Every structure is written in structure tokens, then in C-alpha cells.
Amino acid sequence: MLKCRTMWRRLAPLTRASSTLCRQNTRRAVLNNERSPALVPLARMSSEAPAGGNENKIYFLLVGAACLGGGIYAYRTIKGDKDRYNDRLEEIASRPNKSAPDQPETYLSTESPVEPAVETTEAAEPVVEAAPEEPDETAAAPVVESEPEPESPPEDLSEPPVVPAQSEPDTAAEPPSSEPTEQSPVVDSEPPPAAESPPAESSEPQSAAETESAAAEEPSAAPVTEPPAPAPLPVPPHAPYLLIGGGTASFAAARSIRARDPGARVLIVTDEWDLPYMRPPLSKELWFSDDPGVTDTLRFKQWNGKERSIYFQPPSFYVSPEELDKAENGGVAVLTGKKVVHMDVRGNKVRLSDNSEISYDKCLIATGGVPRNLQVIERAGEEVTKRTTLFRKVDDFKALEKVSREIKSITIIGGGFLGSELACALGRRSSEDGLEVVQMYPEKGNMGKVLPEYLSNWTTEKVKSEGVRVITEALVKNVSFDDGKVQIKLKDGRVVKTDHLVAAVGLEPSTELAKSAGLEVDSDFGGYRVNAELQARSNIWVAGDAACFYDIRLGRRRVEHHDHAVVSGRLAGENMTGANKPYWHQSMFWSDLGPDVGYEAIGIVDSSLPTVGVFAKATAKDTPRAAAEMSGTGIRSESETEAVARSPVASSTPPPAPLQQKDDYGKGVIFYLRDKVVVGIILWNVFNRMPIARKIIKDGEEHADLNEVAKLFNIHDD
Fold it and tell me: Which region among 58-67, 489-498, 621-630 has the lowest average model confidence (pLDDT)?
């Protein structure tokens, strides 16, 4: 059609010129002869020149050829589009069968017999470690796992029988030292910048006992003196189940996949250098440990007094990545120090930061997020940046723990969960080591965006009693470095000088793969938009902090808490194996201001909503420490996610008179309302009652008297 238009534009002037010339000749003849010529038709204009008709024939010939060419072009275009459409349908229809040729062949194990090895392992999780490549290690058969029931949460398997002790770096690189019994080439040849190499990265693999002994003998060894990192870990070319990200959601998904498909081969790819671990202790229990080597062992005492590691499983639980396709009974492998930078959704493969590629059948994106920073800090220069911690990973804990023992003052910017927890944890050292701890935030009180004002003020006093200097309604205007100090200037003119900064101002979901994978990012909440089954598109699921899901009760949401990572990861793993279950679970979260004050929350808890609080006098058992002792677990979502949501018999004890003093806020229930319906609940020093709160939100009913609803939690019982 474009050719026809071009031809017409070129021929139109010729036509107009010919017609004009014809009129001029006619008018001239009339003037000369004073009559109209008999041979010139008045009602018709000729497009040809007066001299003859050859040009007119050429004109019609060209127009006809242009029309014919346009018709042929349109026909070929429509036919080509139809062929491409049919080819696309055939490709989509054959995609489920595409992975069959890529499946690795089944290899018969030539290692030592599996059965005797299984008998010597633990009863809780029978595994046989894969034989390392080094000749001086004892050969073993590939990993043979006996998965627990699907209902058990991932953390139930997290008490490791073997302690991965190591001396880990203090900066942003995660070491693979927690895999001493697995294989030596756990660390990529490109360790993260400014990272120290842990002792476990030596060229000779060690047993767990040898690693612990070495860590005990050299607790403060300078990692920079360690030998070079081993050769790069071979990247498996194909993984039936590929999990991007090494956090809680990925581990929960791996356990769920293995529970439904015992022979599944699961590969976790993470840019950190650690095996999957839980994050909550990084800002809670680890800071209250009396062990001076806690940064090396990463073991801590829970509030109930039991000791455990932050790692979900010891290294012996995992298969080495290069042996994954040969493992007769499948297994879970972790590829550390690698980052996925590109996704080819049509080709079902990903590209890593070292340009290696991995194909997959099913893929989970559980990349979590990165801590936000203030623009005034980013613009402050290198000296301020070096003295600022964005708290998120194991290395952030190690670095902050170390620097807190070497400086005299530290300032935390942020009054949310993380900022308040770190303030209370560091406040303990104000009396022990003379450390000055300052917490500043723009709200009027701690956790002012979550708690009602009266409870926020009570919490602020609690934080102050821990030795923290609290500055409320603080808006940072400028940050600079002067005379060896970081200088923070507020908009109201106040100036705070400190040695170190901690920015705890929120989390930004990691969505770098959205562009290459063609995934939609939610413009309001951030994160990848997924359907009710946590699926972003064919063969791709998203779980954890990076998932923006639709809550049938509360609308579209994105949640950044441990329990949500556990539940969403577990559900995504089930759906990757064909369960097709919708996400309906109301995840909870909790925060502890030390071992004596804590709360659990569920739903939408926003201080801008109307609230109704019902409180009672607390007893000795109404503390996080007592709750942990009663439940036998430190991560409270381990038990509550499996509890049955049923309402117990309401307490017959009448509620006390309305409370007037702040000291009376010992324990209670705070209801958050929207259109007179409860959409959020906080259990203040009330523990192991979350299934009841979940049921109240799920019912979505109006309640005339919330005091009666509060009786369901038995807060008035001693």
C-alpha cells in the first residue's frame, strides 16, 4: 500500500497539469472563434496532453501495476502472520515435552553401597554425603534424603547435627566455609570485593570437627593471609528445578519439592557465599550471645536456652552441584557466589554473572530485596559511605558487631522493626563497653507507623531504658564527615555527631530480572505481580519478599517477613510439582525488644487505621523468653504455621477496668479496623495464639464488642 501511495503522489501532478492545459486550450479557442468547439466535451476533463493518448495509457498502466503490487504485498503479509501464529501455537503446545531430551541420564552409583551408609546417619534426616573429589577424604555415596511430612515447616529441620564453624569475613561476601564436609571448590574464583577469605576456603577439604578445631585455635585469624581461592565450581548445565536466591523462601521451596517428589534434583543459585540461613537472629538473639566467637560460629542461644545455628541445615544435607545430575535419589545443591543476570523465558534458561548458562524445567524467583539507603547518605561522599551499614546479611552482622566494639558512638536511622531491635541490642553495650547508641526517626515514637500512639510512646520508653538516646521527629537534612566524625544535620537545626551510621529505612524488592524475563512489576507495592498460585508466567513462580500477591481478604499486598517467606516458598514448591494450590495463608510477623518484651502481628497493622486495644496485667510467663521455653522453639513461626486455626473456650474471667497508666500495658490485644471489620491484630506479649487471630481476619465479620473477642485469647487468665 505504501508503494501505491508513493506512485499516486508522483502521478497526481501530471494529471492536474494535463487537465489544466486542456482547460486553457479550450478557453483560448472560445475567445478566438467566439464559440465553443464542437469536439471538446464540456462535462469531461481529460488527463492527457492535447497532443495525443499515449501518456494516458501509460498512466493507467502504472496505476494498475501499483494496485496489483499492493494486493500481492497485503496477501503475503497476512499469510506470513498466520504462519507465524501457527508456529507459535505449535511451540507452546510442545513446550512441556521439550525438557524430556534434556533430562540427564540415570547413572548407576559406583560409590560405596547406599544402604549401609544410610544406617549410620541421623534418624531425623538420613543423608549420605557425596564423595568429595579430593583423594584424602573418605568416599561416600551420593546424598539420599528421607524427607519429612510435607506439613512440617522448613525450619523444623534446621537444628544441624554438625556445626559449620568458620571464621567468616566482615564485609559483603558470604563464605562457603559452612560446607567443609561437602567439597572444596565451593567458592567461585571471583570472591566479592573487599572480602576476606575464611579458613575453610583452603585447597584441602576438612571434616566438621577439624574445622571447629581450626576455628577455635585461630578465632581472629586474618583472612587476607589465607591461600588463594580454589578453582571455580563447575556449573551444572541443567536443573529440573532451579531456585534463584538462597534465602528462606528458596529453602522452603526446596524442602517442599523434595517432599512431593523424593527423587527431584533441585539447584539453588545464590550470590551470597553462605548456605541458606534464617535472618531474624541477625537482629535479635545473636546480639545477646555471651560467646565472643559468635561471629565465627554463628550459633546462639534461643530465648528458651537451647543453642542452635542460623543455618537451616549442615553442609552434609546438600549435594555438590557437579554431582547433582548423577545423584541417584536426587537432592538439593547450592551454587554459591553466583548471580543470575539474565533469563531467557522462551528458551527456559538463565545466564549467570560469569556468562555460564543453566537450563531448567521449572524456575522459582526468590531474590528477596536490598536495603534502602537515604539519598543524603549516598551523596555524602566516600568517607561517610565507609562508615555506614545497610543491615541485611550475615556479613552486615559481622561487620557491625566488630565495629561496635571499636568505636565510641553509633547512630541508627529508622524507627521500624529492624531499627528498634538493633537499638535495643546495641543498647546493652552502652553500660558494658561505654558505647553511645543513638536512634533517630521522623515519627513521634518507636514503630510509630505500626503501633497506636499510646503504645508507641510506651515502646519508646522501653528503648530508652535499654540505654538508647532516642531522637524523635528527626528529618535528616544533610550528612557530612568532619574531624573524624560523621555529622548529621537535621531540618530543625539539631546536629548529631557519631562514629558510625546504620540505615534501617526499609527494603527494596529485587526485580532486576523483570526486563529480560518479561515479568510485570507492581507499580504500587513493588515486586513481581503473581497470580493466586504465585505464578508469574509459564514455568516461573515467585515467592518471598519479591512476590506481590493478591490476598482474597485484604487485597493486593507484598509482605517482607520470615513467616511469609516460609509459607509462600513452601506453596510455590508444591505448585511447581503440580499441586495448583491458591495462596490463602495470612502470614504473621514478630518483633522482640529483648527477651522480656515482644509482640506478634498479622494482617494490616497500620497506625493510621482505627484501633481498639484490650490489655491485662502481665505475669512472668508473658515474655518472649517464657514463650520460647513453653513452645520449645525460638523461631515462633515454626510452630504457629502448623497450628490448627480453632477458637478455644473463651475465658470466663471478666476484663479489668480500663487502663490508665503506661505500666499497665503488660499484655493485650490490639485490633485494627477498616469499615468496622478487623483487618489486623497485634498480640502484645501474648504468644501461641496466632491461629485464633488468623481465623478472626479470615471470617471478616463485624464485631459489636471487641472485649468479648479479646476473651478468645485468654489474656485475663493468670
Answer: 621-630
Q: How confident is the model at residue 677 (pLDDT cuts 50, 70, 90)?
A: very high
Give dist(CA 621, CA 469) in Å, integer.
29
683: nearest Cα among 620, 581, 603: 603
- Say how far apart CA 627 and CA 526 lie, in whole Å: 35
Q: Please give the Cα distance from 139 to 112 (Å, whole number).
A: 7
Place of cell 558470604: 174
Between the alpha carbon of residue 587 and those of residues 76, 565, 641, the distances in Å are 56, 9, 8
Compute the half-sphere exposure of residue 559: CA atoms within 13 Å on the CB side of its CA: 29
CA–CA dist 534, 565 (Å, integer): 12
Q: What is the pLDDT of residues 622-676, one digit of tens each?
A: 777 666 666 555 555 543 434 333 334 344 444 434 333 345 678 899 999 999 9
* Of 276, 287, 470, nearest in space to 396 by CA: 287
382 to each of 46, 376, 386, 481, 486, how far by Cα in Å? 82, 12, 6, 9, 12
Strand partners, 615: 668
Residue 699's nearest CA partner among 647, 642, 643, 636 is 647
- Distance of alpha carbon 205 from the chain centroid: 32
What is the spatial distance between Cα 66 and Cα 5, in angstroms, rounded to a whole number?
A: 9
Residue 334: pLDDT over 90 = yes
Nearest to 587 by CA among 528, 646, 636: 636
Helix (H) / strand (E) element for 20: namely helix 2-33
Task: Choose among 308, 311, 303: nearest CA to 279.
Answer: 311
Q: Are strands 357-365 and 667-674 parallel, antiparallel or unpaired?
A: unpaired
Among 361, 504, 489, 350, which residue's Cα sits nearest to residue 421?
504
The conformation of residue 669, written as its DSSP 8-state character, comes to E
Unique residue bearing C-alpha cell 479489668: 656
The pair phi, psi for residue 244, each rounded to 5°, is: -95, 115
Question: Residue 116: how many CB atoms within 10 A of its CB?
Answer: 10
Instruction: Dig out the grid coordinates for 351 from the structure.
Output: 545466564
Question: Among candidates 409, 400, 351, which has minimal Cα distance to 371?
Answer: 400
DSSP-assigned beta bridge partners for residue 436: 409
User: Average pLDDT of 549-558?
Assistant: 85
Query: In terms of DSSP H, where are the helices of 466-598?
Result: 514-517, 562-576
Question: Residue 488: helix, strand or coil by DSSP?
Answer: strand
**CA distances (Å), 65 to each of 11, 69, 76, 234, 290, in order?**
13, 6, 17, 63, 92
Nearest to 555 by CA among 402, 412, 674: 674
Name the 3-class secondary structure at 222: coil
pTM over 0.85: no
